Amino acid sequence: MKFCANLSFMFAEAASILERYALAKEAGFKAVESGFPFGFSVEQVKQAKENAGVEQIAINIKTGDTTKGEVGVTSVPGKEQEFRDNLAITIDYAKALKAPKIHIMAGKVETRTPQHWETFEKNIKYAADVLKQENILGLIEPINQYSMPNYFLSDYGRAVDIIKRINSPHMKLMLDIFHLQQIKGDITHSITQLAPYLGHVQIAQVPNRNEPDTAGEINYKFVLEHLANSGYDDWVGLEYKALGSKTKDGLGWIQAYGYSL
């Protein structure tokens, strides 16, 4: 099992995402993932990543004004060009960082209509075709409604159906066990059923999104073993908030569960 640090959630003790690259390396991580690095140029982020000497595994698509709760426009009719522009910008960052995966966030809508689903699938199909040319993997991720009310994609069945119809090796499912538990539970069987479509996995304890070994609903020692037994051998992103003041102090669970960085 390979773990990468999510710089959007971990190392919050740092002032900026640029400083978090160095803290991830100092903590022993060989790889990281992140949201879109708003406010920093391609060159600034690339330099921080290279100075730290870590791999970048994934990056989120440029989503709009996050202070206003904007999390993408992939499902929003009439904003297809904005989606394509955001994808192009994100690809520039991904290529500079040598990141092989891009998480394509769906956006928020108050009422899902057939037009929203049609727009979402059309944009995901477009992304798959573009990412094929760049040899980058696109990811779509169901997100639970408690953490992000009105997020468009909160259904694993619909996500898999879209992936099947697009039928591209460059569009797969991102499975965050944190969201899976709160959307439908049934983690063991869900992992088994979703395994053929997985392109990336993330973890955090439920409900407080802290370290996997903190108090909560999920037995992550069992879940990680089941994930490996189901054939998943790619990176697992640690998308959690440290319970303590320093992220590094809460990493003991990795060794306790029989893994290493």
UniProtKB/TrEMBL annotation:
GO biological process: glyoxylate metabolic process
GO molecular-function term, one example from the UniProt record: hydroxypyruvate isomerase activity
Reaction catalyzed: 3-hydroxypyruvate = 2-hydroxy-3-oxopropanoate
Name this polypeptide is given: Putative hydroxypyruvate isomerase
Keyword Isomerase carried by entry: yes
EC annotation from Swiss-Prot or TrEMBL: 5.3.1.22
Pfam families: AP_endonuc_2
Family, similarity comment: Belongs to the hyi family.
Protein role: Catalyzes the reversible isomerization between hydroxypyruvate and 2-hydroxy-3-oxopropanoate (also termed tartronate semialdehyde).
Active site positions, chain numbering: E141 (proton donor/acceptor), E239 (proton donor/acceptor)
Keywords on record: Isomerase
Residue stretches making up the Xylose isomerase-like TIM barrel domain: 22-256
